[in-house]
Amino acid sequence: MSVVAELFRGEPDGKVSFGDYTLTKKTKKEDVEFAGDLYKVKTFYEITKLERNGLFVYESVPGTAVTDFAERENGVSFTVCGNKDAEITVQLAEQSQYVITFNGEQHGLMETGRSGKLSIGVALDEGTPVQVSIEKR
């Protein structure tokens, strides 16, 4: 999986792709309209962050490239790539339990607090994408 050269891309199936962890300078793309929402992405080798309609959606430290990001009522799923392990935070429902799956293999159960944010660590190797699924229990 490669980086998202245009920084943000809406996919025909309604999913979004974003991020470029190879950039050496912080780069952002704002007010990108897709499916009735306005998106903003900031990305470079240190961080990748996505907002929708001014609200937090996704953040990774260090930066990552994300494809096929889909939000559903019961969670999120996406494919992530980077050149080193990343701490990823996503916005979900508050005070809920979620099953975490990497490449189809369950990696535990986590709970969100009152903020609804959930943080996971993902082991990444350059050029090897990881499919992530976070589903409400």
Keywords:
137 residues; mainly beta; Chondroitinase Ac, Chain A, domain 3; 7-stranded antiparallel β-sheet; 6-stranded antiparallel β-sheet; 13 strands
The strand count comes to 13
The quaternary state of the protein chains shown equals: single chain
**How do the helices and strands follow one another from N- to C-terminus?**
EEEEEEEEEEEEE
Total discrete domains: 1
Can you characterise this structure?
The chain has 137 residues and is mostly beta strands. It has a single domain (8-136), classed as Chondroitinase Ac, Chain A, domain 3 (Sandwich), CATH 2.60.220. The chain is built from no helices and 13 strands. The strands form two sheets. It has a seven-stranded antiparallel β-sheet with strand order 1-2-7-8-13-10-11, with no helix packed on it. It has a six-stranded antiparallel β-sheet with strand order 3-4-5-6-9-12, with no helix packed on it. Strand 3 (27-34) and strand 4 form a beta hairpin. The model has no long low-confidence stretch (mean pLDDT 96).
What is the gist of this entry?
The chain has about 140 residues and is mainly beta.
Write the layout of secondary structure elements.
Blueprint (H helix, E strand, L loop, with lengths): L7 E3 L5 E3 L8 E8 L2 E8 L2 E6 L2 E7 L3 E8 L2 E7 L4 E6 L5 E6 L2 E7 L5 E6 L7 E7 L1
Antiparallel strand pairs: 1-2, 2-7, 3-4, 4-5, 5-6, 6-9, 7-8, 8-13, 9-12, 10-11, 10-13
